[in-house]
Amino acid sequence: MARLLFKNIEVIVTFDPEGRELRGAWLLVEGNRIAALGEGEPPPGPFDEVIDGQGKVLIPGMVNTHHHLYQTLFRAVPGAADKKLFDWLVFLYERWRGIDEEAVYVSTMVGCMELLLSGCTTTTDHLYLFPRGKERLIDVEIEAARELGIRFHPTRGSMSLSREEGGLPPKDVVQSEEEILADSERLIREYHDSSFGAMSRIALAPCSPFSVTPELMRGTAELARRHGVLLHTHLAETLDEEAFCREKFGMGPVEYLEELGWLEGDVWLAHLVHVSPGDIEKLARAGVGMAHCPSSNMLLGSGIAPVVEMLRAGVRVGLAVDGSASNDHSNMIREARQAMLVARVRYGAEAMPARVALRLATVGGAEVLHRGDEIGSLEPGKCADLSLWDISTLEFAGAADQVAALLHCGTQYADTVLVNGQVLVRGGRLVNESLYEYIPRHREIAARLVEA
After folding, report:
1. What Å distances lie between residue 167 and 159, 162, 219, 245, 404, CA to CA?
2. So what's the pLDDT on residue 169?
3. 48-64, pLDDT tens digit by residue?
4. Domains of the chain, each with CATH number or no CATH
């Protein structure tokens, strides 16, 4: 079993239940688990590798709770970048319908490369778009994630309500309920791993109230609960969605989910921007989790989610970069900074300290994915998912609080990143240099799809 020692670390931010921060510290990894950590002199060797943490801060690997990785191919698209959600979707569906297996593979590689470099060690993905004849796109994503070595939670998304039937997407990117449920069951059977430290887990994720039928929502929930997998969807993102739900169903989005039997502890929801105090109380009481997407919500002009009220009510909250077409980057440390800033805009400077935002990005996301006993904090026995940040560089000059500086000083990339005990980033570069060869191909595919 390989033994890796981090020593001389300026600060280890554990995010354990006591919120300990260790100074002049060390951390020992044995195999794929954290074996021990502490202050002062490290344990004796031998070690297979020793990493010097002088001038560096160590935090848990971050957990991205919502993404659309294929959208890295559609960053800053002219005609879409300044639209609100419904108009943005209608415009981009015409470009998205051209995706194929190569596009999904390469975009997954590029999006996850950026996540890894930014200190993210676990990511979800919400792939709900399946053009005719392209039914095995989730399989392609999983293959790419395995090549990279990132911990992956793909969600089998779905759309069954086309434009002709009162939804938003065109008919050639939606599927029948029978197709969706059969493929969902296949993916669970082939790829879902419920064991401790699993690198791949499946969740089921109908896209939104305006792109799936109530029957599919109920059928998906029944299937997920029969197999013990989590459920996910977009909800309460915009006022247009609120109006759609009231016109079509006679109730708001949260009431609609409650009617469908979705307000349970096995559910996490993306956005939750437009929710009432009563909605928040229902979500908290049900144990529903939240994927907070501050950059996406701001870029689309959707609003500012009431995260502080959610946390006060006891809602489990994690952070998410969301699709790159509604954020234009897949950088988790920058998303944590954005969460800190936007909460202060709405609630005041004391509402979101840097450590709270970092906690949402780490153990908060782990709890949303029901993996708080495995990842998200630095404790003996947990998976060796962590990131080391160099605070000796120019942007940190004069920073007194080395932990808060990770967000206050505009950090971009981690120095070292481990996933499952494997060093995937070293010196701010991906260890596997061949991965960078995907970038020019990614540009070619993006140009073709956007021009089409």
Report:
1. 9, 5, 19, 11, 44
2. 84
3. 999 999 999 999 999 99
4. 3-60+383-435 (2.30.40.10), 62-368 (3.20.20.140)
